[in-house]
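Agenda item 2: FE2/S2 (inorganic) cluster complex prediction
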Amino acid sequence: MAWISEDRRQALVRDGKPLLTDDMKKTLEEKYFPRYPTKRAVLLPALHLVQHEYNWIPPQAIEEIAQFLEIAPAEALDTASFYEEYWLKPKGKYLLQVCRSLTCEICGSEKLREHLQSRLNIDVGETTPDKRFTLVELECLGACGSAPVMLVNEVLYENIASTDQLDQILDRLPDDPHDFKDPNITWEQDGSHSG
Ligand code: FES
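Presented output:
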């Protein structure tokens, strides 16, 4: 019996526009290709670029990245699934990552985590029904000197001394995470902040 094989790299499922846009390809070609010895070595930046745009990495994007870098989709998926930083399922607009390692724990990270669970009415690993927040815990971020700390997407908040400060952080987040920049908050004595 003859086996019928299929080149899945050519059999992309595209409902709508490509997820790896021309602008993204241009960025990869102009900014990253010159830095790396091979196209496949650009896989991590490509995954990061897609996740930054869509907040997660859809299967269609995995296939498009693989095709663009001329590697097998399985290789792209293997790499993406190896690193916890890459999300292969949708998450909230804002990923709240509370450090749970020893120094932060001693400095009150558990209280912060419990406050977030209570305020958002979700458990660790869950996403709010409006898809605004996903809450996770993670290990030491290397910022023990300013514990307790929390990452909001890619912004590190340090010295979160109270649940009031935590509320202020959440209240200041813009609706569109693309408008979210490092707020450079300076905490004031009374718990209010500037910046
Ligand atoms: S223990 Fe939290 S940053 Fe090190």
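Discussion summary: Residues 4-14, 188-195 have pLDDT under 50 and may be disordered.
Owner for follow-up: CH.
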